Amino acid sequence: MTAVNVCGRHNDFCLYTKFVFVLLMMVGAVQQLGAAELTFNTQEFAPFNYSIGGVVSGPVVEVVSTVCTVAKIKCRFKSLPWRRAQADVKTGKANGMFVIGWNKERAKWLNFSPPILNTEYGFFVRNSNNLEFREISDIAGYSIGVYGPSNTSNSLEKIKSDLEALGADTISIDLRPYDETGFRKLSLGRVDAVYSNRDVGVVLTHKLGLKNVRYAGSQKRLKYYVGFSKAHTDKALVDRFNAAFNKLHAQGAIQKILVSYGMEPSAL
pTM for the whole thing? Predict the structure, then answer.
């Protein structure tokens, strides 16, 4: 039995039907693209991101929101305790998290945005300590508070290992789940120093009214990023977000937002 070509070579109706079908497919694809959504987790991490009246706010939130608008992605933000924020991204309850530093362990399960801003880790001490930090041997023998588990505490563990490799007096690490705890203990003389993000530490000392604590110097410069779950976020959507970021960066829009908050934008 021979198959019959219902349309025929010159069947205008059939050609029109095919055209409408293809058009509907294209419209559907565009609508699906336009309806893309991302959920971002963060924490209370002033001055980078923080809640005002229950609304997640701050310079990085403004940057990410602006990128989402340009990329035509509907984005939601949740502020959670950091362990839960990370766990939700790992299990697919959220797509991404910020702000984070890059490390090898995170790179195993996260795709990263372009670098957003520059910052640094360093040491805070009491005013009575004349330390001007320049090298890790300066803090040999110290007891040091740090927030963690975190990228910050991982960096301090590396400092401890490096000191031990040098044969210098080791440091004792006082790991706490809240940033404020270490700074309060420092003010009271219960630790010799706190290792912290500089900007976070400056905000906390003002917030807590700690007049006897100061920044003693930078130990490590780093960049902050947005991280996206490899397992639960389509790489094409990450690429779309990153392309919009790069476009805005080239226009100077990202830099303008960050500078208005006193932040240092990263170069791409």
Answer: 0.81
* Residue 143 and residue 191 in contact, taking contact as beta carbons nearer than 8 Å: yes
250 located within any domain: yes
In Å, how far are 57, 73, 208, 214 from 211, measured between CA atoms?
27, 44, 9, 8
Mean pLDDT, the chain, integer: 90
pLDDT band at 32 (very low <50, low <70, confident <90, very high): very low
Residue 5 lies in a domain: no
- Under 8 Å between Cβ of 197 and 119: yes
Same domain assignment for residues 139 and 59: no
Are both 124 and 217 inside the same structural domain? Answer: yes
What is the residue whose two structure tokens read 């044969």? 167
Number of H helices, E strands in the chain: 9, 12
DSSP strand pairing (117-126 vs 193-197): antiparallel
Residue 201's CATH number: 3.40.190.10
Give per-residue pLDDT as tens, 63-119.
999 999 999 999 999 999 999 999 999 999 999 999 999 999 999 999 999 999 999
Per 3-state DSSP, the chain is made up of helix, strand and coil in percentages (nearest 5) of 45, 25, 30
